[in-house]
Q: What sequence folds into this?
């Protein structure tokens, strides 16, 4: 039984590969920015609806859910990201 031949070494210049990967990061960043902007618009609309109906501008139980979800998926840095998103949507407390 013969063993498969090893894959040939990549012929691409590392600088070219790094450039291509950075383009992917830039595309991810653009998508993240678009999603954050959409999230902020939705959050602000919720805040306006809550205020118009006599409610408070925030829901601590909902914020706790968001924090827990981000922490579970991304660790403590995820919780920090969630806090930033929450603050952007509702303003500082």
A:
């Amino acid at each position: 039984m013969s063993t498969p031949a090893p894959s040939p070494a990549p012929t691409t210049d590392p600088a070219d590969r790094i450039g291509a990967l950075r383009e992917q990061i830039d595309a991810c960043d653009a998508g993240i920015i678009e999603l954050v902007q959409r999230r902020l618009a939705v959050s602000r609309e919720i805040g306006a609806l809550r205020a118009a109906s006599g409610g408070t501008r925030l829901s601590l139980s909902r914020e706790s859910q968001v924090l827990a979800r981000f922490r579970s998926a991304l660790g403590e840095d995820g919780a920090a990201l969630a806090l930033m998103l929450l603050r952007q949507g509702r303003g500082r407390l």
